Amino acid sequence: xxxxxxxxxxxxxxxxxxxxxxxxxxxxxxxxxxxxxxxxxxxxxxxxxxxxxxxxxxxxxxxxxxxxxxxxxxxxxxxxxxxxxxxxxxxxxxxxxxxxxxxxxxxxxxxxxxxxxxxxxxxxxxxxxxxxxxxxxxxxxxxxxxxxxxxxxxxxxxxxxxxxxxxxxxxxxxxxxxx
Length: 179
Hints:
Blueprint: E1 2-10, E2 14-22, E3 35-39, H1 43-55, E4 62-65, H2 68-75, E5 90-95, H3 104-113, E6 122-126, H4 131-139, E7 144-147, H5 152-169
Parallel strand pairs: 3-4, 3-5, 5-6, 6-7
Antiparallel strand pairs: 1-2
């Protein structure tokens, strides 16, 4: 079920408010010019995440990287310089922690160490419920930490919530717009 609420001030302080109830609804992002970077090594999780984003009709391009080193190479060259064009910079990163070659925590720490990516929204989406992982993720600058639910419905609901928040509700800027 989806509830759409609206409230508007009319004339001199009177307020018109209403709720509309729908059996189903789809959020559409028609304004974003940025991509979403998904860093996920589990193919089944990747497919499910992409399917949820597709059903949401997100217009963001989804870029998938399968390990931590690939994720960092997406941003930086061998000399550790940003290599992304404005159009390729992600609106947010959805980051798993258990990655081959370089862990998600290492990726997070390195992204926060660069001035060009230090403000990039990064949501950790992982199966780990270890207190130490949660603490480290926030210490290293994660904007969100969500444990992957085992239940399929809860998993898709979590992805829907993360996708709609970071692409539709959250205001973000690219590093080209930083002061």
